[in-house]
Design goal:
This protein is mainly alpha-helical. It contains 8 helices and 4 strands. GO terms for molecular function: nucleic acid binding.
């Protein structure tokens, strides 16, 4: 049964007391018939409209704060979950565990994935690459044999090689705000 709010429980109680059938109450309140049926059954067993006590620790943040967390993550995708929990702690004076942040982002469809590191592409460079690809799209094997592909060595000079993740949804790998642009030659 979906959890009814205090207002919904009192409203359903009033409608049932007025003599409406379960299907009429469910239609009027836009709820499932089974929800109203179980509510009425529990009402007869306990003689009270209040809900059952819930076990476990109550949530430390509201749905609005979780939506705000997701919106902030969409603006800064490279921020880690632990850094985000520390930021929340400083801003709201609230303790939010990093695992809670990961779960909330996961339920909104965001996953921590390895970032794509690509070259810095301006509009001019993108246009030139597109033109080059269009010019060479019809080449056959004989023409490609005259091209030499050389091996490149990678030397890391100006940044750490640590794993930095980006929070993104499926299919967003090459979006501009999910790519860390890097000039390989300085």
């Amino acid at each position: 049964m979906s959890r009814l709010s205090e207002v919904d429980r009192h409203r359903a109680f009033g409608l049932l007391q007025a003599g409406l059938p379960i299907s009429g109450v469910s239609l009027r309140m836009n709820l499932n018939r089974t929800t109203i049926f179980r509510f009425r059954q529990r009402l007869h067993e306990t003689d009270t409209v209040s809900g059952r006590p819930r076990f476990g620790r109550p949530r430390c943040s509201t749905q609005r704060q979780y939506r705000n967390l997701v919106r902030n993550r969409m603006n800064n995708r490279f921020l880690s979950a632990s850094a985000s929990s520390h930021h929340k702690r400083e801003r709201n004076n609230q303790c939010i565990n990093a695992n809670t942040v990961r779960r909330r982002l996961s339920t909104s469809g965001l996953r921590a994935r390895h970032r794509y590191i690509g070259p810095i592409l301006t509009q001019r460079l993108r246009h030139q690459r597109t033109l080059w690809a269009q010019e060479h799209a019809a080449w056959d094997r004989i023409q490609w044999r005259s091209v030499v592909f050389s091996d490149e060595s990678r030397f890391c000079i100006d940044h750490a090689d640590g794993h930095v993740h980006v929070w993104r949804r499926s299919g967003e790998r090459y979006q501009a705000n999910c790519v860390r642009e890097h000039d390989r030659w300085g």
